[in-house]
Amino acid sequence: MPLKPAFRNPWAWVPTLYLAEGIPYVMAMTVSVILYKRLGISNTDIALYTSWLYLPWVIKPLWSPLVDLFRTKRLWIVAMQLILGASFACVALTIPGPSFFRYSLAFFWIMAFSSATHDIAADGFYMLGLKEYQQAAFVGVRTIFYRIAMIAAKGILVVLAGTLETHGFSVASAWALTFYLLAAIMLALCIHHLFFLPFPATDGPVPRDPSRSASADFFRGFVVFFKRKDIVAVIAFLLFYRFAEAQLVKMVAPFLLDPRAEGGLGLSTAEVGIVYGTVGAIALMLGGLLGGWVISKKGLRYWLWIMVFAMHLPDAIFIWLSRALPESLWIINAAVALEQFGYGFGFTAYSLVMIMVSEGEYKTVRYAIATGIMALGMMIPAMSSGWIQEQLGYSHFFLWILVSTIPGFIVAALLKIDPAFGKGE
Fold first, then answer.
1. Cα–Cα dist 162/164, whole Å
2. Which residues of 359-372 are buried (b: 16+ CB within 10 A; e: fewer)?
3. Which residue from 326, 318, 172 is spatially nearest to 251, judged by alpha carbons?
4. Which of 18, 109, 344, 357 is least enclosed by beta carbons within 10 angstroms?
5. Which domain holds residue 60?
6. What is the torsion angle, in degrees rounded to the nearest 10, for the CA atoms of residue 301, residue 306, residue 308 and residue 312?
7. Does 175 share its domain with 305?
8. Residue ranges of the alpha helices (H) in 261-362?
9. Measured at the alpha carbon of residue 6, what is the angle toward residues 62 and 190, in degrees to the nearest 5?
10. In whole angstroms, how large is the CA radius of gyration of the chain?
11. Structure confidence by residue, pLDDT tens digits, 158-176
């Protein structure tokens, strides 16, 4: 047996690799909102500053070639996981301090940049570490374990923090302990991958064409992407299809946590972990799985408008929740699950459009550009969502969200999709 095997059983590393990819993203984008809400930060500041954490994913196409040009993707993966584990530990250290907001945000920034870089390396390594038939076979596995990471981060870890709060720990101490545990988990994943990731022969710096300069190679992928005839419609779709959801996602947790006297549902931290982080995340995953299955039967063009409506209309359920303020956890769970299921189902169309615009030369760079535009489309609307909510109150804010779905319908109408795209053989 070679000391550095080129291939290993994919079950030994693919599931854990995508757990490691999913957890930091969810912690930065979603759990940070719950953390800061419990620590008394205003909705305006939460939405503004946590939305800036999208920036590494917006600009990651700018440094994605570096992962190809320097060292191995295996080394990038292990190094980034080590930094992520250290970042979680540093967030835990800062939470009990007097200037926790400033310093914890700084470490969330390091976490976000490391996570975005890890995404680039992990997705590239997936194609190098698996044979072609295995890549197809494990696409579903990587998606499922990424979703499990969401449930673990938004659900189990938030429930843990909430449980510690109810057992005598201060809010700061409960969340610090949760982040220490998370740091230990990430470092354990780092050690696991240090020993269990394969050593593909092709995992090394990408050879460059000596006839072209490094800068020419770098910019070629961008030129190819932006020369599309339908580039305006594509960019509009990537930016505005989720215009409403980008604002909603930042205010769901504050709405669930805020007391009823302030227009919220008054749930505990643990209850939010169950409602939004577990039941909602499972519904999101099921919606995505169903969306992928139905598109494989009749193609994206056939299902596009059904998915557009499924994505946007369930947002109206928050208008009812903000006015009725139901006390039953069953009703709240059902309402959130319905909205998240529709979001998962409708987001499948978005995912397929990104794949569609990435086909052809420089596929990896094109996809990185598409994901960067996607992150920008989430970041900008989300930044002002907290301020809008505090000006309008929750009830009127959710009415605004329904109005904000209109751009999603307009940009979907601009797309031109091949009737066969996405359809299985």
1. 5
2. eeebebbbbbbbbb
3. 318
4. 109
5. 8-202
6. -170
7. no
8. 269-274, 280-298, 300-312, 317-324, 329-358
9. 60
10. 21
11. 999 999 999 989 999 999 9
